[in-house]
């Protein structure tokens, strides 16, 4: 398959292209992490979990099951993925495990999730 470019412009902006490539290369680690966060939030269930935790200090697995009307197993899998990415943390109280959004992630997620849809 040939790679054809159908872009129409008067001249190439080599300085801009070089600077942008350097920026992407320099920030690869951050871009990869941010891409992973967006991919995780692309799941409607995980998005709802984060939304719920932004509006509640902490919730346990049973709370999520009741609210989202889902079984514990898939909820736990979604929570694990969010925790592994550093989006959530958890704490144990007796037999219950409570999930919460760490302070370092809260402000960023609030900006993303609490924005209103345009009507």
From TrEMBL:
Keywords: DNA-binding, Transcription, Transcription regulation
Segments crossing the lipid bilayer: none
Domain spans labelled HTH arsR-type: 26-119
Domain of life: Bacteria
Sample GO molecular function, one term: DNA binding
Record-linked InterPro entries: ArsR-like_HTH, HTH_ArsR_DNA-bd_dom, HTH_MetalResp_TranReg, WH-like_DNA-bd_sf, WH_DNA-bd_sf
Pfam families xref list: HTH_5 (PF01022)
Matching PANTHER family: ARSENICAL RESISTANCE OPERON REPRESSOR, TRANSCRIPTIONAL REGULATOR, ARSR FAMILY
Name of the protein in its database record: ArsR family transcriptional regulator
Lineage of the organism: Bacteria, Pseudomonadati, Campylobacterota, Epsilonproteobacteria, Campylobacterales
């Amino acid at each position: 398959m040939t790679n054809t470019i159908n872009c129409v412009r008067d001249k190439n902006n080599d300085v801009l292209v070089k600077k942008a490539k350097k920026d992407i290369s320099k920030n690869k680690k951050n871009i990869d992490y941010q891409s992973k966060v967006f991919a995780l939030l692309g799941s409607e269930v995980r998005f709802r979990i984060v939304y719920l935790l932004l509006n509640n200090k902490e919730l346990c697995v049973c709370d999520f099951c009741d609210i989202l009307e889902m079984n514990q197993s898939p909820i736990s899998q979604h929570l694990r993925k969010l925790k592994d990415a550093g989006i959530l943390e958890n704490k144990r109280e007796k037999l219950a495990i409570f999930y919460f959004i760490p302070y370092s992630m809260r402000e960023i997620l609030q900006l993303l999730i609490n924005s209103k849809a345009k009507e």
